[in-house]
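(wild Malaysian banana) hypothetical protein
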Amino acid sequence: MSNKRRVSVRKWKAVAVVYFRELYFKKGKPHPGMKGISLSADQVLVTTLLWWCFSSYHGFTFWIILQWFVKLSHLRSSMITFSLFIFMPF
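Predicted structure tokens:
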């Protein structure tokens, strides 16, 4: 990330929230800009997992395998849980 962006973690209504905010500099001091987004921890996890899936060959392979298990889940519902434990990259 560049020096014009800031990431911070705060508590909002008893939930940890990750803030991504662009900054602008006025007289050499950073100030929060208009552009920004806040995500819950779950949203950050899903976003990171999807980014990993589509940014690397191994992640794309994981995505294909996961989709295959989702299609099979109509036949066997327990396979989804099993596949997530085996193929999770972390």
